[in-house]
Amino acid sequence: MNRSQRTAAFIASRLASVALTIVGATLLLFLMVRLVPGDFTSVMLGPRATPELRAQITHDMGLDRNMIEQLWLFASRAATGNFGEDVVSRRPILDIVLDVIPNTLALAFSALALALIVGIPIGVIAALKPGSWLDSGLALLSISFITTPTLVVSVILFLIFAIGLHWLPVAGAGEPGDIADRLRHLILPSVALALGWVGYISRLVRAALLDTLAELHVRTMRAYGVSEYRIVGLYALKLALVPVVSILGIGLGDLIGSSVVVEIIFARSGIGSLIFNSIAQRNYPVVQACVVFIVAFYIVANLVVDMINALLDPRISGARR
Amino acid sequence: MRMKLDRRTFLAGSSALAILPYVSFARAADRTNPIIALDADIGNLDPGNRVGTTEGNIIRSVCQTLVRFEPGKTTWTNDAAKEIKQISDTEFVFELNPGQMFTGGFGEMTADDVKYSFDRYINGDKNGKKLAYADDLKALKSVEVTGKYTGKLILKHPSAALWLIGICDASGAILSKKAIEQLGDKIATTLIGSGPMTLKEWRPKEQFVLAANPDYKGPYKAHFEAITGKIIPERKTSFLSYQAKELDFTAFDADQLDTAKGLPDTRVIDIPGIDYTWIGINVQRGDLADLKVRQAIRWAIDVDAIIQGAYSGASSRAKTLLAPGLLGNWADAPLYTRDLAKAKALLVETGKTGLTFTFTCLNDATSLAVAQIAQANLAEVGIMLTINAMDSGAYWALGADDAGKDLELTLIAYTSKFDPSFQTQWFLASQIGLWNWQRWNNPEFDKLHQEGLETLDKAKREEIYIKMQKLLDESASCIWVTHGRHFFVDAAWLKPMFLPNGKDWQFEFFDKA
């Protein structure tokens, strides 16, 4: 097998495992949400939920069928992108989910970008001066970022920048079509969400870069008089970023999960807050549709990360020989 | 294309970012139409299948009803109706104003539209399915059309509640028959009305915009060109947004009262609620079936401490089911101030010791604080409480069928309407296994409830509802906690308007101060 054949085989096997994982995770979550006690009609209508209405809505949601039938109905519809109709608003569930996904993706990607833009330089600076006061200070800063809950960061940020300085808005995602307004609404939530990952990435980059800088080929380059800037910027950092790329997939998943808190605090519509509210209301069809999207996104993100790693380091795809 | 980040680009970008905040700041200062916060999104705009107060408030401002609540009052005057005449205890004739046009080109309102709108509550929707709010017009037997603009409402029995709960409220919204037939299921997301405002825009989970309806022919023209409602489920966030001048009006929690009072250019509005929160005791459950045990619990629980500890002292204490201001409020209801000696004496009389019960409540901070205070209070008389806190999904399903048999003490909060019959209905024997979580069964109470529904004389009704509350009091099945309180902040230039419960907002009457 030549290299391109090995890469193709690697991609094919990863795609197959992705499909299996999506199906497995979705089925598992389908069963799990049904173990949660509670009743949608009672939550939505309170004392107006008469037995007649309960039966009617349970029927509309398909919850009066047996589990196998429900599962089959859900799986067969989901395979064609049809998640049914929301029993409250009568809107297609797919539309409800697609309405909010761009907001969550914008939030997660901007937070990730911010974490990389800030976290990598911090890690590099710390690695260049190991054991110094600067290194200790940056370590303290990074650990503080990691350990401060997103909730606390969010509150502090909007107390300072929205209430105190009146610079940035607190709530919502901004006017559609007004890019400046959307960006302004994105700044505080992104920073709140990114801060923990700034800490993670900086620590990871520092450790990886220190390892790389201690390797023989770096010593050889130094011996040949290559400047420290070239060594770090062109060679060592590239190698040190491999573990960072590896955690990006997990990072994106984590950011989407953490976005629940941020979306609720900043009153942004998004998939996190949609899931949260739908679970509270026991609106299972909406929860299931959201879960399918998140699982698919998470797995695809990890697949992309694997591909990038395989391209960066051919040993990863070649290890299957 | 490759992007180059040179010094000039960096400076230009930084300057743009620095200016960005001020763009928004200027916008906030220049507003002429209000932006307000609502804690729930629109769920379903079909008046008969609405799910929350947000839709109710929108429907009342977008649709016409035969008669409309006056600003801030529960009295009403004609809106879509030119005239309504009572011709017997169970018959009313009405005549509509001509020329009242539905939006979206659905034509003029006629008596056929009134019949069609109300028949949905009697017969169900196009598929025969019962509407969620069908009981609001339960007393209505039929609607007869006698002319293009005239018709007759025929009731099953005399009913004072029908107007207050049904016809004046969102359930009484007159819809366009043509629009409903054409829209089908889309009526859940499309509201066609003929009222003072129109639903100009709705971005689910984000905001809606109500605009003044230029074609409205009734007497209540909207004062603002537009009102924007932002969906902000967290009160703390909406209060902070108000402080950041992004909003002109929002509700806030009692614990923020001092902060609210110190805000510049702000009016703080404080409206006593009419809802009711109580600790319900299951009278069919084990040792709780003993009246003296229930009475002992009532004497042992310190409701005043609950008001201070769980409600920040901002809500007043409830003495009975019906709040002050409502017809049938029992002003002389006994106030059970904590008396440990009486509680202990009652327990001695029962001969029961080592009592342990479960206290079930929602898992929010206020409910948990109530539960913990009750737990500490009852421990002092030797009753041990286990707290079972759960999320709303599980909690609201608790009373259904046989599951309710296992409930012991439960903290319950129900919303109210302006007619007392709406509140008393949940304590009927027929509600056991549904929403009567005390499982209290009193035939006299049930009989009085029916009498109250069918009596038109105000003084007699008052007497009936007081008698019903006395029966509830004798049962010691309910420990009344509070009727709640609503707090709002609004920009000094804005004058919002609510019905006296503080929850039903009248967007059509929002005005400049």
From TrEMBL, chain A:
Family: Belongs to the binding-protein-dependent transport system permease family.
Residues of the ABC transmembrane type-1 domain: 101-305
Nucleotide-binding among keywords: no
Record Gene3D superfamilies: MetI-like (1.10.3720.10)
Transmembrane domains' residue ranges: 12-36, 105-128, 140-167, 187-210, 231-250, 256-279, 286-305
Compartments reported by the entry: Cell membrane
Protein name per Swiss-Prot or TrEMBL: ABC transporter permease
Major localization listed first in the record, in broad terms: membrane
Keywords: Cell membrane, Membrane, Transmembrane, Transmembrane helix, Transport
InterPro entries registered for this protein in UniProt: BPD_transp_1_N, MetI-like, MetI-like_sf
Topology of the protein relative to the lipid bilayer: Multi-pass membrane protein
Keyword NADP in record: no
TrEMBL record, chain B:
Leader sequence segment: 1-28
Predominant subcellular localization, coarse grouping: periplasm
PROSITE patterns: TAT
InterPro entries: Peptide/Ni-bd, SBP_5, SBP_5_dom, TAT_signal
Domain of life: Bacteria
Compartments, record wording: Periplasm
Keywords: Signal, Transport
Family stated for the protein in its record: Belongs to the bacterial solute-binding protein 5 family.
Stated name of the protein: ABC transporter substrate-binding protein
